[in-house]
Structure formats: C-alpha cells, structure tokens
Amino acid sequence: MNRNFTALFAAFLLTVATVAHAEAPNLEPGEWQFEHVTSVEGQDMIPPQTDNVRQCVTREDVASAENFLESGENCEVQRMSVSRDQLSYDMVCIEAGMRVEMQAELNFAGTRMHGEMRANLDSPMGEMVLLTRLSGERIGDC
Prior knowledge:
Keywords: Signal. By secondary structure, the chain is of the alpha+beta class. Helix content is 15%, strand content 54%.
C-alpha cells in the first residue's frame, strides 16, 4: 500500500516538474507529514490500512521528480489536468502482469494538501478497487 502512495506522490511531483514553467503549484517546500488511508471497496473483511510518511519536499525534488517514480516505464498517463490549486489525472500501469487503472485528484493550498486515488486492479483474484485518501501538511523546514 505504501508503494501506491509513493507512486501517487511521484506522479504529482513529476507533473509539477512538467508544468513548472507554466504555473507553479500552491505547495511550499519543506518537511511534510502525509497520511494515507487505503481501503478495498466491497471487502468488509479487510480493514482499511493507515500509513504516515514524513518527507522533505524541496524545489530540487520537484525539478528532478522522475527520480521518485519507481516504475515510470510501466505507466502511461492517459489524462491530466493541472492548475495552481489542483492536479487530476488518469494513469494506466502494468505491474507483475496486472493492469492497474488509476484516477487521482489532489488539491493543494500552500501548507496543506488532500486528495483521493482510486485504483482498479485486474488481479489473479479478480477485479479489486482500492481507494486511497491522502492528506498532508507542511510541518516545518527540512
């Protein structure tokens, strides 16, 4: 589940780097605390998983965001919409022979951000839908 967060945040940073010349995102560099809660839709037997991650976000990180993307060669962005306060995209990845279709929307406001990612997985156990809710706040300097 933590890999989903890393991919989501990496895609966000990669997108920010891609559009940096057009409009800077409303996101302040610094030490950030992120929480993401992932649940499997329709599976009451599987409890939601909550993870907390601290990460230093620098201007250099944004400029070289492709370093964060663990499996970028296996993913293709299908749709992307970026503004100063919001990022949304659809992405398809092929991982370990599984097709994963992701839709994400992130909203950012300087020292805070929140968003949601929905991932449809075509797994050996059948189709699964993972829902990840993300929130983050800047907690200080790196």
